[in-house]
Every structure is written in C-alpha cells, then in structure tokens.
Design goal:
seven-stranded parallel sheet, 707 residues, mainly alpha, globular, three-stranded antiparallel sheet
C-alpha cells in the first residue's frame, strides 16, 4: 500500500493534480426549509461548504466491527464470570448484585464506553510494554488478516466522502482507527495525506500549501494498514479515558471550521468525550446567533441508519442537527447526479471517479462474499480476543461498578469479594481496592466507614514515601477532609430552619473544615491565585479549590455582615469561581467544570456577563457524559419540584443515599406532605445508620416540624 499513516502523507500526492471543479456552477446556499433534508444536504454540498465527520457506523457495511463489536468480546474474555450476552446484541454486566434503582444491567459499548473500559484494563496490566501490547491486541481486528480471509474494502460511504472532499478541498474528520478512507483514496487514485491525533500542527502547516489531496484527520489515531503482527501502542491510538479527557486540539479545528461551514455527522454516535461537546457547542452557537438563517444552511446534518437508534439520534438532536434517515448508501446517491453535473465534463479523471462510485453503489450485492467476509471478521475477532491478558476479574468488575456509579451493588460486591481481591492483589492493587472502598463508602453515606477508609488511604500514601505520586497524596488528604465536610448538614430546609445547637456545631465544623482546606491549598500553592502556577493545572488542586469555594459560599451566606462588606467578599469569591472555570475547561477537567456549572446555577449567576458564555457552552454539554450524582444535584438546585424528583430518581439509580435524603427533603419542602413518609422510612432504615449525628438530628427535627 502506498499510503503511510505514520508519515501522514501518501506517495500518490506526487500525481499531477486534476483541475478543480468549476466554482461558477455551484448553486447559492439557501436556508433549510425543514421539508426536504436530502435536498438541503445536497445544496450545502454543492455550495462547497459541507465537510464530513465520520464514526464507526460508516465501516459497518465493510464488515468491520463497531464499538459494541469491539468491547463485547473483550468483556466476555476479561470478565468470564460476570459478563454475558443476553437476548439483545450488547454484552451486559449481569451476574453481579442488582442496583435497586437501576432499570437494567450495564451494557458494554452502550453504557460502558470502550475508552473507559480499556483505561481500567491498561491501568491493571501496568506499564510493561508487552502487557500493554497484549491489552491493545483487540484493535488488530480493524486491520486486514489475509491468512483468515479478512480483507475488508471501502464501501460507498468511504468512496463518496473522499471524492467530495477531493473535489471541494475540504478535510475529512473521523474517530475511526481503521484505514478505509485511505484505501478508498487508493481505489479512486486520489492523493491523500493522513494526520493523526498528535499531528494537528502538521495539518495546519499543510492546509495553506494548496496541494490538492484529501486530508484525512484521524482524531483518535490509527491502527495502520499492516496485516502483520506489528505493535499497536497507546501512542498509535488515543483510546483511553486519560487520553480522551485531555484537551484535543482537533476540537478547535473542527469548531473553527463550523463557524462558516456545515458539518455532516455520518455513522457517528457522539459517545466520545473530547470532540462531541465541541461539535455540539459550535452548532448551538450558530443556531443561537442566527447566522445560519435566512441566507445560510443548517450548521449540522446527521445521517443515521437506524430510526430507532436512541443514542445516536438523541445526541444529534441535542446539537440541533437536521436528521436524514436511510443512511448514506440510500441518501447520498441522490447527490451524485447534480455533483457530476457540477464538474467540468472534460475532466475525464473526475468523471471516472464518479463512475467508480456509481458502480459500487448500484452494482448487485454479492451476498455470498459478504457472508464469507463476516465469518472471516468473526474469526479475526476471536483470534485477537484470545491474545488479551488475564486480569483479576473481581477487581476489574469492582472498578466498573464504581466507575459507572452502581454504588449499592459495588458495596455488596466488595463485601462479598473484597477479602479475596485483597489476597490476590499486588501492592498497587491494594491501593486501588482501598480507593474503591473509600469512594463507595462516601456514595452510600456510610460516613463513619468513609472517614476510616480515608485515613487508612492517607496512611498508605504516606508509607509509600517518594514512590507515591504527589497528586495521590493530596487526594488522600482531601478525602479525609471531605469525610468531615459531609457531616455538616446541607439540606434545602429553609422552610423549617436548623436548631440553634445544630447551627453552633455546624459553624464550628465548617470553620475546622475551611481551615484544613486552606492549609492543604497553601501547602501546595502557597498564597495567590490558582491560575498561573504549574500545580494549579493539577486536577486534584482544582478540586480542592472547587470544594473550598463551595464551603466559602455557604459560610458567606450564613454571615451577618454589612451589605457592602458582603458584596466585596462575594465579588472576590465569584472572581475565583470564574478563574477556576476557565482553568478547568482549559485542562479538560470535566469533573471540576461540572462543579463550577452547578455553583453558577445555584448562585443564580447564569446571566452574569462573567459567567454566561461559559455557562451556556458547558451547561449544554453537562449531561452529554453525565456524572449522575452531579447531574442529580444540579437538577435539585434548580429549585423546582420536577428537578427535585429527577434528583431523587438519579440518587436511587446510583445508590447515593445522601443525595436521596437531600432530594426527599427538597420534595417535601416544595410540596409539603408528599415525601414525609418516604423520608421517615429511609431515615429509619439501616442505610442511614452512619450518616452522622448532626445530619440525623436535623432530619428528625425536619420531620417533626413537617408532620
């Protein structure tokens, strides 16, 4: 093969370029009228303003596995006891304790995303190159395997996308690792250049050169085109949660292009956490600005094969996309005739390309060949799965339950298997196991167990000395402080208020927690702002600042000071909040960004000039990849009865007992008599045995006053 994904440039780039399509024949762009989305797509294409963003769905017709096909077999291999394939296609985590509030089992590739699953697996195999390579062997099934008869070819979508990109000199973006777009260019004899996830600078340098070729931008990397046993490393593919959560420079390139171009999502689920939010924000920004109407087209199209694909369709609609059903091989051929007429007939090379695409589109489908290729694909997947390493499946299962917030299930699972995990675990896994116990104890409101686990974790980190990463030691210290923080009542009980002795103990507790958070912040940063200091870019230090600000806003609200003094103090806190939001967004620290969004909403600052742009961009993407506990808290903070009920549903789904208590209190405060009995039953249950003296005393007083 002539193309090189490592160098990023095909040797076919030396081919003499054909003349460009005649721009004078392109119809003027007109606004989408909502009646014929296919015609709107064609008008945008012929106006030379449409670029494509492709996901794994475009390669399904080439018999390459989609995300579900990749992660499902790997889950069955790594979790043979707990993962099983049910009546539907996705593999589910079914043989574990059930979460009372969950409607269904976690499904791999639907709930459990591949990058997060592989992040956990890669962390467990450690830094050894051979182990890392074995863990990533699953991705080799995206390559050709001639010995097994697996020789996938580009389908109509690949051919059409690269052809339109070549004619109109626009890039192709994809999150796919396979080489189908490269092979499509080779089949059509089109020069191309490939730019990987770490080659944005090369792309920017190439764009002004004017060399006519298809620029294939593979934002998550590539497995290459080799059919041998060449290594696939984490440098080749950006597929772990750690890598995906880092700022992706391609997101700025795509968002910048969408300012004056239209984008067509094709076979894209929107499940990635680094590019989809930028696409969504750019589309909604154009819709809000009104710049797309009446003289411009819709900013975003989505070509979806399945009308009932809730995930893909819902995410596209969140972006305000124009939906086209039937998928490309049925929708896009209607563009071929007008597109052919738009080029100068004397350019035989371009006409030949159209003929090649037409033959592939309208030729009879060889069902026998397709079946043989599917069987070869399945054999390839089985071979690649067989090379995956054997991991501690109990620990892996526990991590998955905690990561995807099945906290009650995780608590029961750890109680049943924790001792066995500890006996088999390495020293590194012992830390992981203790971290899991700490997090689960917090979520189920076992505050006594939370404090005990946090102190044990801190002692462990200190015992490791220089071997312990600084951030992990800070996290352990933060967990200890948070164990005391959660004992201070924080309920929506303005209608009833707190008892006088509770207020005194709350004030003492808040002062102690504030002092410890301040000391932790100063020990790492010293005095001064968070931004501008290297340590301030650390996720844990941003979280320290986030929790400190939350407490200081609460304390400020309880002070009885002259209004000018209170205003001056609040202005300082709001300035720090704005700085934290900007820094967390710049570092792609989504957890802290969500905390800042919640604080902005709670304080009523969404329309403030200092926060409005930040709030609009990130609030719109807040529930794209929700931390259900944070999302539930945000809904509760909205101050509506509907929000409180949504918060209760989220708390029960995640097994977050403290949030369930807060949601019931909020419901009772907003609709007296509607949740009193439920709150009394929960407070009397064993789940609330360890919520702390002040929380229990205050909730009992609340019940007494509301009955």
């Amino acid at each position: 093969m002539d193309g090189s994904t490592k160098s990023g440039v095909s040797s076919r780039a030396d081919r003499p370029p054909a003349p460009r399509a005649d721009a004078s024949k392109a119809p003027a762009a007109t606004a989408f009228d909502g009646k014929d989305p296919a015609q709107a797509l064609m008008r945008s294409l012929l106006a030379r303003r449409l670029f494509f963003f492709a996901g794994a769905g475009v390669s399904v017709e080439s018999e390459l596995p989609a995300a579900v096909g990749l992660i499902g077999p790997a889950a069955q291999r790594l979790l043979p006891t707990y993962a099983s394939r049910g009546p539907s296609l996705p593999v589910t985590l079914s043989n574990v304790p059930k979460e009372p509030g969950a409607s269904r089992d976690l499904a791999f590739g639907v709930d459990i995303l591949p990058e997060e699953f592989y992040s956990i697996a890669l962390d467990m195999v450690g830094p050894d190159d051979a182990s890392q390579d074995a863990c990533l062997s699953m991705f080799r099934c995206l390559r050709a395997h001639p010995d097994l008869g697996f020789l996938p070819r580009p389908n109509f979508v690949h051919l059409f996308v690269v052809l339109s990109a070549y004619l109109f000199d626009l890039p192709v973006f994809t999150v796919n690792f396979d080489a189908m777009f490269e092979l499509a260019c080779e089949e059509l004899g089109i020069p191309y250049a490939v730019f990987l996830h770490n080659q944005v600078d090369e792309y920017r340098q190439d764009a002004p050169t004017g060399a006519r070729r298809v620029r294939i931008c593979k934002a998550h990397g590539s497995v290459g085109t080799s059919d041998g046993e060449g290594l696939i490393t984490t440098e080749d593919i950006k597929t772990t949660a750690h890598g995906i959560s880092e700022p992706n420079p391609w997101s700025k390139v795509i968002a910048g292009l969408m300012e004056d171009h239209d984008c067509a999502l094709i076979g894209y689920s929107g499940r990635d956490i680094d590019l989809y939010p930028s696409i969504r924000s750019a589309s909604l920004r154009r819709l809000r600005s009104g710049r797309h109407a009446p003289d411009q087209l819709a900013p975003l199209f989505c070509l979806n094969r399945f009308k009932n694909d809730d995930v893909e369709s819902a995410k596209a609609r969140e972006c305000g996309a124009v939906m086209l059903y039937g998928y490309p091989s049925e929708v896009l051929p209607g563009c071929l005739g007008p597109l052919r007429d738009a080029i100068i007939p004397s350019h035989q090379d371009e006409l030949r390309m159209f003929d090649a695409v037409n033959v592939r589109t309208h030729g009879p489908r060889n069902e026998g060949a397709a079946l043989r290729l599917a069987k070869a694909r399945d054999a390839t997947i089985r071979e690649c799965v067989g090379k995956l390493p054997v991991l501690n499946e109990d620990l892996l299962c526990a991590k998955i339950l905690v990561q995807w917030q099945r906290n009650t299930s995780a608590s029961r699972f750890l109680a049943e298997h924790g001792e066995a995990i500890g006996e088999a675990a390495s020293s590194c896994d012992q830390r992981e196991l203790l971290t899991l116990r700490t997090r689960v104890s917090r979520e189920i409101a076992d505050l006594i167990g939370y404090a005990r686990c946090a102190r044990r974790l801190l002692r462990l980190e200190r015992s490791l000395g220089d071997r312990a990463p600084g951030d992990e030691l800070i996290w352990a210290r933060l967990e200890v402080i948070s164990a005391y923080y959660l004992r201070i009542p924080n309920f929506d009980t303005s209608r009833v208020g707190y008892a006088w002795w509770v207020r005194i103990l709350m004030a003492i507790g808040a002062a102690c927690v504030w002092a410890r958070l301040r000391l932790l912040r100063m020990s790492v940063l010293g005095r001064g702002p968070l931004s501008g200091r290297p340590a301030g870019r650390s996720a844990v230090m941003q979280e320290v600042e986030n929790r400190l600000l939350a407490l200081e806003f609460h304390m400020l609200g309880a002070l009885r000071l002259p209004r000018p003094v209170l205003k001056a103090l609040r202005d300082r806190l709001e300035a720090r909040l704005a700085d934290l939001g900007r820094l967390a967004a710049e570092c792609a620290n989504t957890s802290t960004v969500k905390g800042v969004i919640r604080r902005i909403s709670l304080l009523g600052l969404a329309d403030d000039a200092r926060f409005s742009a930040f709030y609009q961009d990130y609030r719109e993407t807040f529930d794209t990849f929700p931390d259900k506990s944070q999302l539930g808290s945000l809904r509760r903070d909205e101050g509506t009865l509907e929000g409180a009920r949504a918060s209760l549903e989220a708390a029960r789904e995640t097994g977050n007992t403290l949030n369930e208590l807060k949601a019931l209190v909020a419901i009772e405060s907003r609709a007296p008599g509607s949740a009193c009995d439920e709150l009394a039953r929960l407070l009397a249950s064993r789940r609330c045995d360890h919520i702390g003296l002040l929380n229990r005393a205050h909730l009992r007083r609340f019940l007494d006053k509301t009955r």
